[in-house]
Design brief:
By secondary structure, this protein is mainly α. The chain is 65% helix and 7% strand. The protein has a two-stranded antiparallel ribbon.
Length: 152
């Protein structure tokens, strides 16, 4: 294979299109969340992931699981948790069965902010997808996103 191989070129173009779609969506959501709720996309994602925890077997996520879910390094996730904790949106406490473990929960203020921000996030996502659907290069990706069903 060479650098001008049509299969490689098509693959690279597909990756560029996917990257472009992601960037447009994230930028639209970021602007909407910052303007309406003083939240970044990462902060919103973290609150959303942590709000889905529950008491019981496997109910609380370890920091590595949280980092994987929000697509950040563990150190970046810890810094993000600290910032949201400083804002009163998260709280940390020791795991009752393993004193080495630390749980992170969304506070009532965090849950309230998340619920207020959720419609903003959803609307911005819909707008970004609708706009991207008008671009012939992005339309197939938009259709794929709209039909993808992944269990939470």
């Amino acid at each position: 294979m060479t650098a001008t191989d049509p299969a490689l070129t098509a693959l690279a173009q597909g990756w560029c299109a996917l990257s472009l779609l992601h960037g447009r969506i994230e930028a639209r959501i970021e602007r909407a969340l910052q303007t309406g709720h003083d939240l970044s996309v990462r902060e919103y994602s973290l609150l959303d992931v942590l709000s889905r925890q529950h008491n019981g077997e496997g109910g609380h996520l370890q920091m590595k699981q949280v980092a994987d879910a929000v697509i950040l390094s563990q150190s970046a996730t810890t810094r993000l948790v600290t910032r949201l904790e400083d804002r009163g949106l998260l709280s940390r406490y020791l795991c009752p069965t393993d004193r080495r473990g630390i749980y992170t929960d969304v506070t009532e203020a965090g849950l309230t902010l998340l619920e207020e921000a959720r419609p903003t996030n959803d609307k911005a996502l819909r707008q970004a997808l609708d706009e991207a659907a008008t671009n012939p290069e992005l339309a197939p990706l938009v259709r794929a996103v709209e039909t993808l069903r992944i269990p939470v």
